[in-house]
Amino acid sequence: MIASVRGQITDLGDDYAVVEVGGVGLQIYVPSLHRNELSVGEGTRLYTHLIVRETELTLYGFSSKEERQFFSLLLGVKGVGPRLALAVLSTLNPHAIRRAVVNEQADVFGRVSGVGKKTAQQILLHLQDKVTVVDGLEPVAAMDDADTAVLEALTALGYSIVEAQAALQILPKDAPQEVEERLRLALAYFSN
Q1: What is the pLDDT of residues 12-47, one digit of tens each?
Q2: Is the pLDDT of residue 68 over 90?
Q3: Are the beta carbons of 127 and 154 closer than 8 angstroms?
Q4: What is the CATH number of domain 145-191?
Q5: CB within 8 Å of 10: residues ≥ 6 apart
Q6: Which of 23, 62, 87, 121 is deepest in the core (most CB within 10 A)?
Q7: Which residues belong to CATH 1.10.8 in the chain?
Q8: 43-52 and 16-21 beta bridge pairing
Q9: pLDDT at 182
């Protein structure tokens, strides 16, 4: 098992980073939440999970041990492979996952591209006895029609699903329910 990798980033792709360690470039798939923080030429440390298949060895890297732990837990869910587990961690950080599990909100996992209602429920059931309870976890707000429309508009404008969800999360609780106004407020997030 390769538990962690420390080295210099020599290349970045849409969903991976190449980290040079001792003269060897390792292609490591990373969640997009972390991928956006990486830059070529910088040093990094990634906590890794190695997947061994007949024809390939694939490394997945995470910014924290907790992220890596959630990746391993997600792999235990029937129908969830490494790519889907990575998609979950590209959309939801460990705190959001823990909050969704503690508050029994399977619909939160349904927000992840590629996760249907049945898989979302399986993720919730699988993680329920494995996630520790932390005080002060508030339920994740369910997405209403206005927020769904804003999310779709932002992704149509070229923002990633992660960026769009981050913009939605900063909207004030008293924000108007009109789609146009919510979209304007969400776009203000990107101008800061």
Answers
A1: 998 899 999 999 999 999 998 788 888 999 999 999
A2: yes
A3: no
A4: 1.10.8
A5: 18, 19, 20, 25, 40
A6: 62
A7: 145-191
A8: unpaired
A9: 85
pLDDT in the model for residue 179: 83
Considering only residues 100 and 126, tell me which one the structure prediction assigns the higher pLDDT.
126
Structure tokens at 74: 């997600």
Q: What is the CATH number of domain 65-128?
A: 1.10.150.20
Euclidean distance between CA atoms 127 and 101, whole angstroms: 7
Q: Which fold has domain 4-62?
A: OB fold (Dihydrolipoamide Acetyltransferase, E2P) (2.40.50)
Query: What is the chain's length?
Result: 192
The pLDDT of residue 9: 95
Q: Rounded mean pLDDT of the chain? A: 84
Instruction: Bin 49: left if φ > 0, else alpha if -120 < ψ < 50, else beta.
Output: beta
Which residue spans of the chain are classified as CATH 2.40.50.140? 4-62
